[in-house]
Amino acid sequence: MNVHKQIEKFKKQHENRGRLLIHCPDKPGIVASVSTFLKDFGANIIESNQFSTDPSGGSFFLRIEFDCPYLVNKMEKMLSSFSDIANQFSMSWTLTRVSDVKKCAVFVSKELHCLQELLWEWQSGELMIDIPLVISNHLDAKEVVKSFGIPFYHIQSSRDIRKQVEQEQLKLLNQYSVDFIVLARYMQILTPEFVEQHPNQIINIHHSFLPAFVGAKPYERAFKRGVKLIGATSHYVTNDLDEGPIIEQDIERVDHRQDVEGLKVIGRKIERNVLAQAVKWHIEDRIIVFKNKTIVF
Amino acid sequence: MNVHKQIEKFKKQHENRGRLLIHCPDKPGIVASVSTFLKDFGANIIESNQFSTDPSGGSFFLRIEFDCPYLVNKMEKMLSSFSDIANQFSMSWTLTRVSDVKKCAVFVSKELHCLQELLWEWQSGELMIDIPLVISNHLDAKEVVKSFGIPFYHIQSSRDIRKQVEQEQLKLLNQYSVDFIVLARYMQILTPEFVEQHPNQIINIHHSFLPAFVGAKPYERAFKRGVKLIGATSHYVTNDLDEGPIIEQDIERVDHRQDVEGLKVIGRKIERNVLAQAVKWHIEDRIIVFKNKTIVF
Amino acid sequence: MNVHKQIEKFKKQHENRGRLLIHCPDKPGIVASVSTFLKDFGANIIESNQFSTDPSGGSFFLRIEFDCPYLVNKMEKMLSSFSDIANQFSMSWTLTRVSDVKKCAVFVSKELHCLQELLWEWQSGELMIDIPLVISNHLDAKEVVKSFGIPFYHIQSSRDIRKQVEQEQLKLLNQYSVDFIVLARYMQILTPEFVEQHPNQIINIHHSFLPAFVGAKPYERAFKRGVKLIGATSHYVTNDLDEGPIIEQDIERVDHRQDVEGLKVIGRKIERNVLAQAVKWHIEDRIIVFKNKTIVF
Amino acid sequence: MNVHKQIEKFKKQHENRGRLLIHCPDKPGIVASVSTFLKDFGANIIESNQFSTDPSGGSFFLRIEFDCPYLVNKMEKMLSSFSDIANQFSMSWTLTRVSDVKKCAVFVSKELHCLQELLWEWQSGELMIDIPLVISNHLDAKEVVKSFGIPFYHIQSSRDIRKQVEQEQLKLLNQYSVDFIVLARYMQILTPEFVEQHPNQIINIHHSFLPAFVGAKPYERAFKRGVKLIGATSHYVTNDLDEGPIIEQDIERVDHRQDVEGLKVIGRKIERNVLAQAVKWHIEDRIIVFKNKTIVF
């Protein structure tokens, strides 16, 4: 079964599935209000996770996945009805339909393993996204991207023309109605303007166990320091380099036998898995960002 | 600070903390009913986890931890009031106060590492339980148990006198109002009668990654098979040997250099950690057993 | 750089690199004889690993990787010269040139993730092998194999025509001078005759943590048992199903939220990595089989 | 069996076991010379590991464990005989008897979990060392240390009297002929003079995954940064804080539910295991330090 058929099948299967993501100051009665709201619309809660930072005066976080017959028809009314509850509790919130599959633009440079992992999981139906385009400052990825039937845009980049490059990129993101961006080893720094337009919508993979080895050449520095584990970190991009909210991290054991190239080979597998995991949690609306940290439900 | 003062402090801090554990057939409105119930008693939900096996006609599982002022005074009324909701939804449920610290009897034979881990974590305040007694069919543990100020009972055991031994054990469990039993490498098989009196209240540690190496001498068999990872499994005891609901498992990497004794040394650390983790989840009421499997919230 | 150029470059770089793999009864003087032999041929030891099962009367295992100028010219003489030492110590042994890149046939059925991982690592130069052909009893892999420029052979299979199928397969293996076979989720059982012709030359991936869940449908059985970790195992194929010498195993944590399909998605990543690792160790001559177990240096 | 009997038994069993640790510039013939030397003394190699940083002009590292009848009588002659080989190849080297069990002083402050792990493994015979004394700047450990029958020295410490404190410590180390020092969460900085007298003989445990969170309060900083894994690192102490050669590291997964105290509870298990592993490798002479990194054989 090809990927587009799989996506259609997924949408069909989940046409009545919705997700509610809430973040607000903690006080009694939130869950009662929210669950009564869902009940009144005939929704059945499938999975629910809640977390409070501190019982007295802390922050409240909630993710609910529910089934609701005729969701598409009720959606408008649900949104307006929930606004009242949201106002009452000063909530940040989203209420989305699972069948609105997210559109993801992948940015890549010359290292292709993270891109390939995403394409592969996408093709096998494990990663339920649309990938309307891939953008790169190099041509290395062109062939593989096209072999998956995805438009490839080559936009050469350099420090001097960064703003102009980003104008082109933004135009494409707009044109394809992109929901979020994955930097799959895209070795360029984005401008503050670009980042600010996509809060918690740009996922990066950094090839070290952050906060160790922030910045360039982490494998070289890991080799020099003689660490016994190397890692990778996926995080939302903010304007502080490698300082954004961490979504996922993992490590592998290494020893004295690996040179820098050996570390990179091992590291590539960690990067692939960590990035794919972060994207999966993002598209399932499992992540809430709070104080530059993530709650992953 | 000694352990008994720590427990008193914990009880004081959590005197208004309650836990609700629910398992019932899934249908709409459960969360709304439960959360309205809690709200009506002035309770604030601290942590909530919910899981359904299947949106249409499956099973529903819920764990809620909440804060409720004057909980001790309200408890009786809450219990009776919740009965109505429970009946309506055909729930299996428990509603408990966190300050009712559970009483745990530890059974041990000659291998002491699991017992010691429990005693140690207990003493450092990490394991919030009462340990009113330790029972053993050998004398090896006597000294260490007494050094922690805990009564030690030596009840010799053999296949022929099993029933009689268990009578003595049951009398002690009763006398000390024990809530649950930990078999910390207690190498004796319990009778069906004994097990049936303690459904999901006996936690065992098996020194293999179940279902591999069920039964005796798992390290010897792991060595013979040449596995590259060894493990341990904590599970509730049922009347099928090593077939009870698994609570936690973990593994460590091994290689050709370890002989059986080397595997045992590595294995002991896994056993200690896996058992301690299972006990922690049990006393925090995080475990629901369903179809011989566990949901761990 | 394309993969064939990478292989040529690797051969060039390693034209003087050799590997000696030895297994014999332990007695004093083996290392002295072997290292003197290497020194006399002007070889420099790069990496050496040795292991003895038991100091008194056990088995001795040795792997040496060395650099030797003009190795290609000396090889014949080294082989005959080493025969004398080997006879003296009753050694099983191989002496090979690293630049003789091994030829690997991949057998696959309908699940393609293990095949794809191998092809991908091969293409990126991480897996230094020739893949002269892929054989399948289905057509699912045809397109992807051809996209890598590798001949694909479709040989339909069934229990009744197993011998005839294997005749065709053996003919192809012979025609392409294949050194070893990887069963990348090839869901067919091989005949004893086929297996015996390839001792320790057929690598299988089993989708469970052996010896747990030997045989069919391991993910279904893992789900039913409620394990908290799932795994995969690569092993050499013998005539006892899933009982061959284990090369590598790994696991991932799972919980009550994964259904069987969810376990399979997680499992596929483990399978891919475990199989690729086993193949890597095999082609680097790191594995010695002894008493149905592996020593992996 | 008590620990002192276990140590005596170990010594007896290993009275003919020796270890040779070598580090020198790489050139052909080293292994041949060393193995011929061992053969000439009638020694049989039990385990051997060798590593070279670079085939052409790199560094050579070798660890050999061997059995040699009447080792105690031959030792003097072996040492003098090996000197000639060592000079020829400009080796750094040690040749030791395994039955010379190392004497370890443990330094501790108020956190006792690392000390307790060491004492416990020592008592169970897993850690084959003598612990002639424990030194602390606090009294918290006194009772537990004495319960193991080990002398406890309380030396109050402060920045102002550091030199004087170290004089007392050095005197004790000398008096008890201590071979190496373990800082089991000893929260004091040692003077350069003290460190320089014990090159690669002071093992520290740092409660983070170095080089992340160098210095004070790593768990607090890990919490603030929102990492998804926390770790611990054991390393030899040098005069650069937390910058010494790393021996071992490990991590555990954490999530948004742990506060700082929760991270510490998880972290303590990692610290215990990582430190105990590092000490084990140290006493088995498995570690060679080179360019501020470790080769662990």
From TrEMBL, chains A, B, C, D:
Query: What is this protein's function per UniProt?
Result: Catalyzes the hydrolysis of 10-formyltetrahydrofolate (formyl-FH4) to formate and tetrahydrofolate (FH4).
User: What NCBIfam families does the annotation carry?
Assistant: PRK06027.1, PurU
Name the family: Belongs to the PurU family.
Q: Which GO terms describe its molecular function?
A: formyltetrahydrofolate deformylase activity
Q: In which pathway does it act?
A: Purine metabolism; IMP biosynthesis via de novo pathway; formate from 10-formyl-5,6,7,8-tetrahydrofolate: step 1/1
Organism of origin: Bacillus carboniphilus
Q: Which InterPro entries match?
A: ACT-like_dom_sf (IPR045865), ACT_dom (IPR002912), Formyl-FH4-Hydrolase_C (IPR041729), Formyl_transf_N (IPR002376), Formyl_transf_N_sf (IPR036477), PurU (IPR004810), PurU_ACT (IPR044074)
Spell out the catalytic residues. Answer: 242
Q: Which reaction does it catalyse?
A: (6R)-10-formyltetrahydrofolate + H2O = (6S)-5,6,7,8-tetrahydrofolate + formate + H(+)
Q: Start and end of every ACT domain? A: 19-93
Q: What is its EC number?
A: 3.5.1.10
Q: Which domain of life is it from?
A: Bacteria
- Top enzyme class, one word, equals hydrolase
Which Pfam family is one of this chain's hits?
Answer: ACT
Name of the protein in question = Formyltetrahydrofolate deformylase
**Assigned keywords, A-Z:** Hydrolase, One-carbon metabolism, Purine biosynthesis
